[in-house]
């Protein structure tokens, strides 16, 4: 798997945990007993024909109008599911890790994830979870930090 090869190569500081299968970021937050603001969920968008990985808290959604302005795009939509299976051939569908550069795309991180000192995210399966400091994630993912999400109730 690309993720663990990369984490080993850069001597990343992280903890791997295992839980019952979860299929949403909010389910993973509950299973791992953490607030949804600490779970990083990746969402792949198509902006003017280019794919981006948006990373935001589990309990938030993308404000597409705001994101369009932030990146200067004319058109933005969610990437088609058929595209995702080709982009993430080493992961279970819906369990992609939030490292766009491992898959040839820029990572856009919502600023709200900086509020916590640690984050969790899926490690390519619906059972594996990585815990790491927010600073370590920023170092490894090298994201462009923007404001593009809103909290869902």
Please tally the β strands and state the result: 10
**Spatial ordering of strands, largest sheet:** 5-2-3-6-9
Average of pLDDT: 95
For this structure, what is the CATH homologous superfamily?
YbaK/aminoacyl-tRNA synthetase-associated domain
Gross CATH architecture = Alpha-Beta Complex
Verbal overview:
The chain has 153 residues and is an alpha+beta fold. The protein has one domain (2-151): YbaK protein, CATH 3.90.960. The protein is built from 5 helices and 10 strands, in the order αβαβββαβαβββαββ. It has a 5-stranded mixed sheet with strand order 5-2-3-6-9. A 3-stranded antiparallel sheet has the order 1-8-7. The mean pLDDT is 95.
Write out key terms for the chains shown.
YbaK protein, 3-stranded antiparallel sheet, 5 helices, 5-stranded mixed sheet, alpha+beta, 153 residues, globular
Describe the structure in brief:
With 153 residues, this protein is α+β, with helices and mostly antiparallel strands.
Helix-strand layout with pairing:
Layout: H1 2-9, E1 15-18, H2 25-32, E2 40-47, E3 50-57, E4 60-62, H3 64-71, E5 76-78, H4 81-87, E6 106-110, E7 118-122, E8 128-133, H5 134-141, E9 144-146, E10 149-151
